[in-house]
């Protein structure tokens, strides 16, 4: 109670006076831009200007936040109770908070956290309230607004709600963009939004969405503000509340609808231990400095959304996601998950992996990760860290008689024996939970892993040939991992440097040659990418079948899952990750980018047309593995 009722003395941007909800909404609805769009829509649709204005008012009412300190205090009290039950500790970097406090007073600030759990949503407001920093307004999905009572509490805690599918609704786009831009121009509160757009179901960084990013940058591009400051925020969990739910969603189980009843039913999670949570506020970045020489603001005013501006927005969005990755803290469990997934599935489910072997390999991998610049959460004796980590993740693995086994869900009483297909799905759920924690460490290893794979496939030592293949792999996996646009050469050089650093290769100007001492590292890095390569091959195989020509996403996902299940049962496929719907969607996006699949709108649902020759060609290149 003392924390919730404490005095709150923030220092806003240039001493900006508080702006009430009514004042903010009025400024948006009476803006010159919205008046212009309203008249244009009225002429196009034959409606009266008043009718369109009334519709705009309705959109504003549905969308707008109503931040009130009293509700922040209520949330502060509730979150203190919840966080104490869920986590042993919540760590925040004070250096990052101090620089944020300074940045907020100098220019409009955009807080850009990663999104891994529902817990992310108000934890930043909670921290800022604790340290007397102005509270953010937060972009949230409209389903949250529909939760009885909870939706209104979130609105009064600073959330404004955005529809998931806006499509070509011109008026909605106009109201939303003007609302966001007015908040930036006024600068009375920082803005918080998830650049990835959605919560990551794989705990891996997602390709950034650019719509919101463009809206927050436009006031700077148009010269309406002197600068905008971007702050990457990395939220890391030892254990994620929704780990089982996310794995089942990836296997085609529908996502539960956000509801107050669902929230109350989920209260049993409060009885579990989720370890620690780390929140890292990155260094504030000036858009003015980042865009120097990249964009001409005078030109932007003449030709809005011109290509250079769009490229700049994309570059900044990718940069922010990379900085989120670099700021995240990798848990010992992520390293263990990398190694557990490289063991044969029969070892994990039946024989058990030797504890001594897992311990030795994890300590070896810790050294490799530190050599590669990873930030690790490892603050105790090695044996204590290993045993406490496995105890925390007893829902995924259990340690018994010197061996580690994968935990499979317990079966409820059933009339019929479990079918082979159901057995596959059961193991897949456990594997995908394990994979999600491995994914949290992938950004550290992915560039050297791509080069290790290129060396393995091409059997070449020539730099130019390896670079060409490295570029191909990066293009193929562009929706799987985050690569900053136009940084191919730097990524390749970084990969070369890291492989040399761990003693895996020798470098000369023209060649990259293998070292005898680095085979363990190369083998680990190749195996790290193998599940992705195998999963992509399953999709290529399905698309190459004679009867597949035109399909929708709804048709292809279960069909590929069925094919993967058959291949696993026949012993031809060894990775259960091929059953993940997110991986399958990423393959489709990559094939569109490589022009092997074409997307077109034939009806309400988008359809895809396959260029079988192109798909087979890509598959053949990977087949050399």
Please describe what this structure looks like.
By secondary structure, the protein is an alpha/beta fold. It folds into 3 domains: 2-327, Glycerol-3-phosphate (1)-acyltransferase, CATH 3.40.1130; 332-440, no CATH class; 444-623, no CATH class. It is built from 27 helices and 16 strands. The strands form 4 sheets. Strands 1, 2, 3, 4, 5, 6, 7 and 8 form an 8-stranded mixed sheet that branches. A 3-stranded antiparallel sheet has the order 9-11-10. A 3-stranded antiparallel sheet has the order 14-16-15. β10 (397-400) and β11 (403-406) form a beta hairpin. The longest helix is centred in the C-terminal third of the chain and has 25 residues, at 519-543. The relative contact order is 0.08. The mean pLDDT is 91.
The gist of it:
This protein is an alpha/beta fold. Helices cover 54% and strands 11% of the residues. Pathway: Phospholipid metabolism.
The CATH architecture of the largest domain: 3-Layer(aba) Sandwich
Low-confidence stretches: none
Strand content: 5-15%
Query: Largest sheet, if any?
Result: 8 strands, mixed
| Radius of gyration, whole Å | 25 Å
Structural class: alpha/beta
Total domain modules: 3
Total number of helices: 27
Annotated CATH topology of the largest domain? Glycerol-3-phosphate (1)-acyltransferase
Name the shape in a single word.
Answer: globular
Mean pLDDT over the full residue set: 91
Sequence-ordered SSE layout with sheet pairings:
Blueprint lengths: L20 H9 L2 H14 L3 H15 L5 H18 L2 E4 L1 H13 L2 E5 L6 H11 L6 E5 H4 L4 H6 L3 E4 L7 H17 L4 E2 L18 H11 L7 E9 L5 H8 L9 H6 L10 E6 L3 E2 H4 L6 H6 L4 H21 L4 H9 L4 H7 L1 E2 H17 L10 H11 L4 E4 L2 E4 L13 H20 L2 H17 L4 H14 L11 H14 L3 E3 L4 E3 L4 H25 L6 E3 H18 L10 H13 L3 E5 L4 E5 L1 H12 L2
Helix pairs in contact: 1-9, 2-3, 2-9, 3-9, 4-6, 9-10, 10-15, 11-20, 16-18, 16-20, 20-25, 21-22, 21-23, 21-24, 24-25, 24-26, 24-27
